[in-house]
Amino acid sequence: MELPTQTFRVTRADLIRYAGASGDFNPIHWSDRFATTVGLPGVIAHGMLTMALVGRAVTTWAGAADAVVDYGVRFTRPVVVPDDDSGTEIVVNAVARETAEAGLTRLDITATCNGEKVLAQARATVRTPLPTGVAGREG
Amino acid sequence: MSLDHSFVGRSYPPTAPYQVGREKIREFATAIGATDPAHHDPEAARALGHPDVVAPPTFPMVLTMAANRQMIEDPALGIDYSRVVHGDQRFAYTRPVVAGDELVCVNTVEDITSRGGHDFVTTRTEVSTVTGEPVVTAWMKLVVRGEN
After folding, report:
1. H helices of B35-102, where?
2. A6-136 sits in which CATH class?
3. Most buried of A28, A136, B15, B39 (most Cβ within 10 A)?
C-alpha cells in the first residue's frame, strides 16, 4: 500500500539547531568554506538529520511515536542546503508491506531531494495496532 | 593505509553511563520538528505506557556517536576520520529510549572489508541500561575513502 507523501523543508537554521541538539559539529554542516575545501558543492545536511526527518515520516505513518522496532538507511547522496530562507526540501514516500510476524508492518521508503534519491535501502518495521481481543504487543 | 582486519569481532569496555534527560529529548525532538506530544509531555508518554517522554527513533545516535569514538580514535585500528563518510545506519529497538534512562554502550567492530581502495567498517553498539536491560542496538557502516 502506498502511503501519503510527506515533505520536509531543511534550512541552514535547521542544520545549526540539529548540530547543537545532536552534538555533531562537523563543519561540513555549517561552513561553506570548509565544505568546498573537501570537495562538496557547499554545506550539506547531516545524514542523521535526513534519517531523523524520515523517522518523523515513519512515526507519523505508524500513528505512534513509539511504534518503530527497526529502522535502517544507506546514505547515497548529500543533501545540499543553500544559504537562503527557503533551503531545500526532502520528499519522503513509502510502501507498506505485511510481514510474516503479526502486528508488524514493513515500510520500504524512498527519500529524494531535487528529484534525486538521497537514501537507499531505507526500511522501517513498525508496530501496527492489533485488532481488539488480540494479545497485546508485549512479549 | 589499510585497516587492521584482526579487529573484526573486537569489543571495547562499556562506556560511562549516559543520563537521558527530559529536556535533551525535548531539545532533540524540537530540532527535528517532531511535535508528537509523547516526545514533550510526560503525561502523553505515560498514556502510551512509558515512564517519561519518549525519544525519537534516531535519538540514540546522540550517545552512540560519542561512544563510537572509542573505535574511531583507536590508533591501533587506524581509522583516518578525515576520510570517513557515513555509509549506513540502522537501529533495532527493544524499546524506545525514555527520559530517565541511564544507558551504557558496548562497541564491537563487526566487520571490516576493503574494496576499490576503500575500507568499509561496520560497528555495532549495544545500548542497555546500567542494570543490563537491552534498549537498542545501533549499526553504523563507515566508508574510509582511499587516498588519491
Report:
1. 42-47, 61-67, 69-72
2. alpha beta
3. B39
